[in-house]
Amino acid sequence: MDTLVSINNLTKTYQRGPEKVEVLHGINLDIAKGDFVALMGPSGSGKTTLLNLIGGLDNPSGGEISIEGERIDRMSSGQLSQWRSRHVGFVFQFYNLMPALSAQKNVELPLLLTPLNGAQRKRNAEIALTLVGLADRGKHRPNELSGGQQQRVAIARAIVSDPTLLICDEPTGDLDRHAAEEILNLLQLLNREHGKTIVMVTHDPKAAEYATHTLHLDKGTLVEQQSHAA
Question: Which PANTHER family does this one have (predicted)?
Answer without folding.
Answer: ABC TRANSPORTER ATP-BINDING PROTEIN (PTHR24220:SF452), IMPORT ATP-BINDING PROTEIN (PTHR24220)
